[in-house]
Structure to design on (169 residues):
Protein backbone atom coordinates (compact mmCIF):
# COMPACT_ATOMS: atom_id res chain seq x y z
CA UNK A 1 0.00 0.00 0.00
CA UNK A 2 1.12 3.52 -0.60
CA UNK A 3 1.96 5.83 2.26
CA UNK A 4 -0.85 8.06 0.99
CA UNK A 5 -3.38 5.82 2.73
CA UNK A 6 -5.07 7.97 5.34
CA UNK A 7 -7.49 7.86 8.23
CA UNK A 8 -10.12 10.57 7.88
CA UNK A 9 -12.93 11.63 10.19
CA UNK A 10 -16.52 12.76 9.75
CA UNK A 11 -18.93 14.07 12.35
CA UNK A 12 -22.70 14.22 12.28
CA UNK A 13 -25.11 16.34 14.26
CA UNK A 14 -26.82 13.25 15.70
CA UNK A 15 -26.71 9.45 15.56
CA UNK A 16 -30.28 9.75 14.28
CA UNK A 17 -29.04 11.43 11.05
CA UNK A 18 -29.36 9.27 7.91
CA UNK A 19 -25.64 8.54 7.43
CA UNK A 20 -24.90 7.28 10.96
CA UNK A 21 -28.12 5.24 10.87
CA UNK A 22 -26.98 3.63 7.59
CA UNK A 23 -23.56 3.00 9.19
CA UNK A 24 -25.23 1.21 12.11
CA UNK A 25 -27.58 -0.80 9.84
CA UNK A 26 -24.65 -2.01 7.74
CA UNK A 27 -22.71 -2.96 10.85
CA UNK A 28 -25.70 -4.83 12.26
CA UNK A 29 -26.00 -6.85 9.04
CA UNK A 30 -22.26 -7.50 9.07
CA UNK A 31 -22.19 -8.65 12.68
CA UNK A 32 -25.55 -10.43 12.74
CA UNK A 33 -24.04 -13.92 12.90
CA UNK A 34 -21.32 -13.13 15.45
CA UNK A 35 -22.59 -13.39 19.01
CA UNK A 36 -19.28 -12.09 20.40
CA UNK A 37 -19.91 -8.85 18.51
CA UNK A 38 -23.14 -8.02 20.29
CA UNK A 39 -23.19 -5.16 22.71
CA UNK A 40 -23.53 -1.41 22.76
CA UNK A 41 -21.09 0.06 20.31
CA UNK A 42 -22.57 3.46 19.63
CA UNK A 43 -22.51 6.91 21.11
CA UNK A 44 -25.68 8.40 22.51
CA UNK A 45 -28.34 9.42 19.99
CA UNK A 46 -28.24 12.91 21.53
CA UNK A 47 -25.60 15.22 20.18
CA UNK A 48 -22.83 14.83 17.63
CA UNK A 49 -21.26 11.53 16.66
CA UNK A 50 -18.00 10.91 14.81
CA UNK A 51 -16.54 8.06 12.76
CA UNK A 52 -13.22 7.23 11.13
CA UNK A 53 -12.54 5.72 7.72
CA UNK A 54 -9.41 4.21 6.16
CA UNK A 55 -9.07 5.75 2.69
CA UNK A 56 -6.71 4.68 -0.12
CA UNK A 57 -4.85 7.22 -2.24
CA UNK A 58 -7.56 6.87 -4.92
CA UNK A 59 -10.25 7.83 -2.31
CA UNK A 60 -11.59 4.27 -2.10
CA UNK A 61 -12.72 3.25 1.37
CA UNK A 62 -10.66 0.30 2.63
CA UNK A 63 -12.25 0.02 6.07
CA UNK A 64 -14.12 1.95 8.73
CA UNK A 65 -14.62 2.19 12.44
CA UNK A 66 -17.08 -0.29 13.80
CA UNK A 67 -18.60 2.17 16.21
CA UNK A 68 -19.85 5.71 16.45
CA UNK A 69 -17.99 7.98 18.87
CA UNK A 70 -19.28 10.81 21.03
CA UNK A 71 -16.61 13.20 19.75
CA UNK A 72 -13.97 13.69 17.09
CA UNK A 73 -11.29 13.36 19.78
CA UNK A 74 -12.59 9.93 20.85
CA UNK A 75 -12.67 8.76 17.22
CA UNK A 76 -9.14 10.08 16.60
CA UNK A 77 -7.73 8.50 19.76
CA UNK A 78 -9.31 5.14 18.96
CA UNK A 79 -8.10 5.23 15.33
CA UNK A 80 -4.55 5.94 16.53
CA UNK A 81 -4.74 3.11 19.05
CA UNK A 82 -6.09 0.64 16.46
CA UNK A 83 -3.42 1.68 13.94
CA UNK A 84 -0.72 1.24 16.59
CA UNK A 85 -1.81 -2.34 17.29
CA UNK A 86 -2.91 -3.34 13.79
CA UNK A 87 -0.64 -6.40 13.73
CA UNK A 88 -2.75 -7.89 16.58
CA UNK A 89 -6.06 -7.57 14.72
CA UNK A 90 -7.94 -10.78 14.02
CA UNK A 91 -10.02 -10.87 10.84
CA UNK A 92 -13.38 -12.63 10.73
CA UNK A 93 -15.18 -13.29 7.44
CA UNK A 94 -18.97 -13.26 7.29
CA UNK A 95 -21.69 -14.07 4.79
CA UNK A 96 -23.76 -11.09 3.67
CA UNK A 97 -27.52 -10.59 3.80
CA UNK A 98 -28.00 -12.04 0.31
CA UNK A 99 -26.55 -15.09 -1.38
CA UNK A 100 -23.06 -14.58 -2.75
CA UNK A 101 -22.16 -11.57 -0.59
CA UNK A 102 -19.29 -11.58 1.87
CA UNK A 103 -17.74 -9.12 4.30
CA UNK A 104 -15.26 -8.90 7.14
CA UNK A 105 -14.56 -7.26 10.46
CA UNK A 106 -11.46 -7.03 12.63
CA UNK A 107 -11.12 -7.22 16.39
CA UNK A 108 -8.53 -7.69 19.10
CA UNK A 109 -8.72 -11.17 20.63
CA UNK A 110 -12.33 -11.82 21.69
CA UNK A 111 -13.25 -8.15 22.03
CA UNK A 112 -15.86 -6.22 20.08
CA UNK A 113 -14.98 -5.39 16.46
CA UNK A 114 -12.99 -2.19 15.99
CA UNK A 115 -12.94 -2.07 12.18
CA UNK A 116 -15.19 -3.35 9.41
CA UNK A 117 -15.38 -3.43 5.64
CA UNK A 118 -17.40 -0.65 4.07
CA UNK A 119 -19.16 -2.76 1.43
CA UNK A 120 -20.15 -6.30 0.48
CA UNK A 121 -17.89 -8.39 -1.77
CA UNK A 122 -19.04 -10.86 -4.43
CA UNK A 123 -16.58 -13.59 -3.45
CA UNK A 124 -15.20 -14.84 -0.16
CA UNK A 125 -11.64 -14.68 -1.53
CA UNK A 126 -12.07 -11.03 -2.51
CA UNK A 127 -13.36 -10.20 0.94
CA UNK A 128 -10.47 -11.96 2.71
CA UNK A 129 -7.89 -10.36 0.42
CA UNK A 130 -9.42 -6.91 0.97
CA UNK A 131 -9.36 -7.44 4.73
CA UNK A 132 -5.65 -8.33 4.74
CA UNK A 133 -4.81 -5.39 2.47
CA UNK A 134 -6.81 -3.05 4.69
CA UNK A 135 -4.95 -4.15 7.82
CA UNK A 136 -1.63 -3.76 5.99
CA UNK A 137 -2.63 -0.26 4.84
CA UNK A 138 -3.76 0.64 8.35
CA UNK A 139 -0.26 0.11 9.76
CA UNK A 140 1.19 2.96 7.67
CA UNK A 141 -1.87 5.19 7.35
CA UNK A 142 -1.49 8.90 7.97
CA UNK A 143 -3.95 10.15 10.57
CA UNK A 144 -5.69 13.33 9.42
CA UNK A 145 -6.01 14.73 12.91
CA UNK A 146 -6.07 18.41 11.98
CA UNK A 147 -9.83 18.38 11.72
CA UNK A 148 -12.93 16.63 10.48
CA UNK A 149 -15.95 17.24 8.31
CA UNK A 150 -19.16 18.10 10.10
CA UNK A 151 -21.97 16.85 7.88
CA UNK A 152 -25.58 18.06 8.00
CA UNK A 153 -28.42 15.56 7.37
CA UNK A 154 -29.34 17.09 4.00
CA UNK A 155 -25.72 16.66 2.73
CA UNK A 156 -25.96 20.02 0.95
CA UNK A 157 -23.43 21.57 3.24
CA UNK A 158 -20.49 20.54 5.33
CA UNK A 159 -17.91 22.38 7.37
CA UNK A 160 -14.30 21.43 7.97
CA UNK A 161 -13.75 21.93 11.69
CA UNK A 162 -10.20 22.38 12.89
CA UNK A 163 -8.88 21.02 16.14
CA UNK A 164 -7.40 23.69 18.36
CA UNK A 165 -4.43 21.59 19.46
CA UNK A 166 -3.00 19.15 16.95
CA UNK A 167 -0.46 16.58 18.01
CA UNK A 168 1.87 14.86 15.51
CA UNK A 169 0.91 11.24 14.72
Amino acid sequence: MTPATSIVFSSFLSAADPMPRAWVRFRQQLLAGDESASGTLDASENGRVSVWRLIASNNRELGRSSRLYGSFEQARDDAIAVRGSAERLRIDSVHGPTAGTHGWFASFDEQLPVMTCGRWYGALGSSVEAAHQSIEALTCAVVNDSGHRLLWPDRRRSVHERVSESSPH
Observations:
- Residues 124-139 form the longest helix (16 residues).
